[in-house]
UniProtKB/TrEMBL annotation:
Keywords: Membrane, Transmembrane, Transmembrane helix
Protein origin, superkingdom: Bacteria
Transmembrane feature ranges: 85-103
Protein known as: FecR domain-containing protein
The FecR protein domain, residue ranges: 124-217
Lineage of origin: Bacteria, Pseudomonadati, Bacteroidota, Cytophagia, Cytophagales
C-alpha cells in the first residue's frame, strides 16, 4: 500500500475529501479488498477519528469481510448518525458510493448463543426544521418537522429495503424489483418498488395517512391490505384499523416539501399547532376566536409575521413576536 494512498484514506475518514478523491478512495479499496493489513489499519484509523465517522464505501461481497473484521473488534453497540451536511458534503452520500455499516455483538458467555444486534442510523428534525436525505440506492427522503427516521445498518444488503418513520416524510424511491422498499409506521407497513408518496404518522394515537403521487403502493396492517394508485390516499385510524381509499389534493398534502403552507378549512387551534411546528415557535394566547370558525389560506415561503397578518383579516386579534414566543390576543 502506497503511503499517499493511506494519507488519502485517512483524509477520507476525517470527511475532508472531494468528490474526485472519493472515487479514488473507492478504487483503492476495490483494488485491495483482500488486504488483511489494510482491514486492520482501516479499523484503527476509524477508531481515531473525532466522531468515528461511518465509512462510505462501495457495497460488494469483498468488503463484507471488512464489516465482519470491524464487528469482531468492537465490544459495545453503537448507533451511527449521518451528519447534517450541506450540498457539497452530501456528494459523499449521493454519488455511487454506498455506506459500510457495522454490526455490534454484545458481550456474552462463550457457551451462550451469539445474538447480533442491528445498528440503526437515525435522522431527526425538531420544530421548524426540515431535512433532505439521500440513501445509498439513490432513493430520496425529505423529513418534515418533528420527524424521526430510523434506517437499519444493513438497509441495502438485505432482500428488502426497510425504514422506520415517526412523523411525516415524502419518499422518492429508486426502483429495484428484487428489493422492495418498506416504510414501517407502528403496525402499518407501506410497500413499494419505485414510486413517490407521502407518509404521515405523528403519534400512536393519531391516524396514519399514506398519499400516493406516482407509481403504486401497498398499505397493510394486521387486519387488511389496500393497493393505492396515483392521487389516492388511505387514512388508518388506530381505533378501527380500517383501510379505505379517497382522493386528495397533491398541493395540500405535499406542499410542505416546497415550503408551501396551506390551511384547508381547518380550525384555529389546528392552525396554531401547525404554525408552532412549521416555524419552531410557541404561542401564548389570550381569548379565543369565534367558535367553530374554519380558516383557509396559502402561504409560499412567507415569514410568520405575514402569515399572521393574513389570518388577521378573517379573525380579529393582535400579536407580538418576542424571539421564539408569539403573544396573541383576541379582541373582545
Amino acid at each position: 500500500m502506497k503511503q499517499e494512498d493511506l494519507i488519502l484514506l485517512k483524509k477520507y475518514l476525517d470527511g475532508n475529501t472531494s468528490a474526485a478523491e472519493n472515487r479514488a478512495v473507492q478504487d483503492i479499496l476495490t483494488q485491495h479488498e483482500h488486504d488483511e493489513e489494510l482491514k486492520r489499519w482501516l479499523f484503527d484509523a476509524w477508531q481515531k477519528t473525532s466522531a468515528k465517522k461511518e465509512l462510505s464505501l462501495d457495497i460488494n461481497e469483498g468488503w463484507l469481510e471488512i464489516k465482519k473484521t470491524i464487528s469482531n473488534n468492537t465490544k459495545s453497540r453503537k448507533i451511527v448518525h449521518w451528519p447534517q451536511v450541506g450540498v457539497a458534503a452530501s456528494i459523499v452520500l449521493a454519488i455511487t458510493l454506498g455506506v459500510l455499516f457495522f454490526w455490534q455483538k454484545p458481550a456474552s458467555d462463550p457457551e451462550d448463543p451469539v445474538v447480533e444486534q442491528a445498528v440503526f442510523i437515525e435522522k431527526e428534525t425538531g420544530k421548524g426544521e426540515k431535512l433532505n436525505i439521500s440513501l445509498p440506492d439513490g432513493s430520496f427522503i425529505k423529513l418534515n418537522t418533528s420527524t424521526k427516521l430510523s434506517i437499519p445498518a444493513n438497509y441495502y444488503s438485505n432482500n428488502e429495503r426497510v425504514v422506520y418513520l415517526e412523523g411525516e416524510a415524502f419518499f422518492e424511491v429508486a426502483k429495484f424489483e428484487k428489493k422492495p422498499f418498506k416504510v414501517i409506521t407502528g403496525n402499518i407497513t407501506t410497500t413499494v418498488m419505485g414510486t413517490s408518496f407521502n407518509v404521515k404518522a405523528l403519534s400512536e394515537n393519531e391516524p396514519v395517512s399514506v398519499a400516493l403521487v406516482e407509481g403504486k403502493v401497498s398499505v397493510a396492517n394486521a387486519k387488511d391490505e389496500i393497493i393505492l394508485d396515483p392521487a389516492e390516499m388511505t387514512t388508518v385510524r388506530p381505533s378501527t384499523g380500517k383501510l379505505s381509499k379517497e382522493t386528495f389534493d397533491v398541493e395540500v398534502i405535499t406542499g410542505w416539501r416546497s415550503n408551501l403552507l396551506i390551511f384547508d378549512e381547518i380550525l384555529f387551534e389546528e392552525i396554531i399547532e401547525k404554525l408552532e411546528q412549521w416555524y419552531g415557535v410557541e404561542f401564548k394566547i389570550k381569548g379565543a376566536p369565534v367558535g367553530g370558525k374554519r380558516y383557509s389560506g396559502r402561504f409560499e415561503n412567507k415569514p410568520l409575521a405575514l402569515v399572521l397578518e393574513g389570518l388577521g383579516f378573517s379573525s380579529t386579534f393582535s400579536y407580538e413576536i418576542k424571539d421564539k414566543t408569539i403573544f396573541l390576543n383576541f379582541k373582545k
